[in-house]
Amino acid sequence: NQQCCEKDLDTEERTFVAIKPDGVQRKLIGEIVARFEKKGLKLVGCKLIQPSRKLAEKHYAEHKGKPFYEGLLDFITSGPVFAMVWEGKEVVSTSRSLIGLTDPKKSPMNTIRGDFGIDVGRNTIHGSDSVESAQREIKLWFSKNELITSSITIEKWINED
Ligand code: UDP
């Protein structure tokens, strides 16, 4: 294969995670980032960004027409969001486990939503729900030069192979 493509550079799985405006305003960035770091995941990009309506519409396109859609767009565009890309083995499902269920009331304790939220419309954090969604969302929120490719040598302390 003569072509050098993005995939060759990042063989590890990546996911898109965003602390929503409620989490940012409530000063939960540090606490949440700490949980991802302690799990052994690797941060490869992050920024504080107030998303435009257009970005929010693209991000939540699958929910267009649902009763909560307009409110969700109003909310996600209402203030800064802390957008991140995390990397690691099975990082998409691992991140969803750290995050918990969509409804914070039903989300177990020791999950981010279970610990910090009550309302489904104020559930603190977003995490991609599949590898395909992750690839789409990372492209939507980040340009390539905002993501690092250099290696951090903790991998051998986390992964057996
Ligand atoms: N949401 C909402 N009301 C609902 C369902 C969802 O406000 O009845 C919001 C909530 O913030 C959720 C987001 O829409 O995180 C996307 O919903 P999805 O079902 O994709 O849940 P997630 O993947 O975020 O757990």
Automatic annotation (TrEMBL):
Keyword Nucleotide-binding found: yes
Q: Which residues bind ATP?
A: 20, 68, 96, 102, 113, 123
Reaction(s) catalysed by this chain's protein: a 2'-deoxyribonucleoside 5'-diphosphate + ATP = a 2'-deoxyribonucleoside 5'-triphosphate + ADP
- What UniProt keywords are attached to this protein's entry? ATP-binding, Kinase, Membrane, Nucleotide-binding, Transferase, Transmembrane, Transmembrane helix
Q: Identify the EC number(s).
A: 2.7.4.6
Name the residues annotated as catalytic in the UniProt entry: 126
Any single GO molecular-function term of the entry would be: kinase activity
According to its UniProt record, which cofactors does this protein need? Answer: Mg(2+)
Q: Does the keyword Transmembrane helix apply?
A: yes
Q: Which family does it belong to?
A: Belongs to the NDK family.
The name on file for this protein is Nucleoside diphosphate kinase
Q: Which residues of the full protein are shown?
A: 36 to 196 of 196
